[in-house]
Amino acid sequence: VRIVESGGGVVQAGGSLRLSCATSGFTFGDYTIGWFRQAPGKEREAVSCLSNRDGIRYYADSVKGRFTTSSDNAKNTVYLQMNSLKPEDTAVYYCNTYYGRDYWGQGTQVTVSS
């Protein structure tokens, strides 16, 4: 199993970014992919997840209405579209799936300046 995040960067408050999570090594359409984030000095928290099997999505209250997760089954890739970004969204964003055990990517840094 391989997970690679990309798309992070520095953006001003109110701006947008789209993160990508490219996966391989498992049957993408059968599994749930989650987005998590970890800010300095804080615990890792769940942001969003998408069940590729039935399309059910979950969003943390802090990002509802601003973030949207989607997938491209042909590319085995999940996206996190982040709009109306706030400084408190600054964190390293990680992609996760459970395939016998938890698998994580290396993370991608998102920095939102005020």
Principal-axis shape equals globular
This entry's quaternary arrangement is single chain
Helix and strand sequence: EEEEEEEEEEE
Number of helices: 0
Number of strands: 11
Gyration radius from CA atoms, angstroms: 13 Å
Helix content: under 10%
Percentage of residues in DSSP E strands? over 45%
Structural notes for this entry:
The protein is mainly β and 114 residues long. The protein contains no helices and eleven strands. Strands 2, 4, 5, 6, 9, 10 and 11 form a seven-stranded mixed beta sheet that branches. 26% of the residues are buried.
Gist?
This protein is mainly beta and 114 residues long. The chain has no helices and eleven strands.
Q: SSE layout and pairings?
A:
Elements lengths: L1 E5 L2 E4 L4 E8 L7 E7 L6 E7 L5 E3 L7 E6 L4 E6 L8 E8 L3 E3 L3 E6 L1
Parallel strand pairs: 2-11
Antiparallel strand pairs: 1-3, 3-8, 4-5, 4-9, 5-6, 7-8, 9-10, 9-11
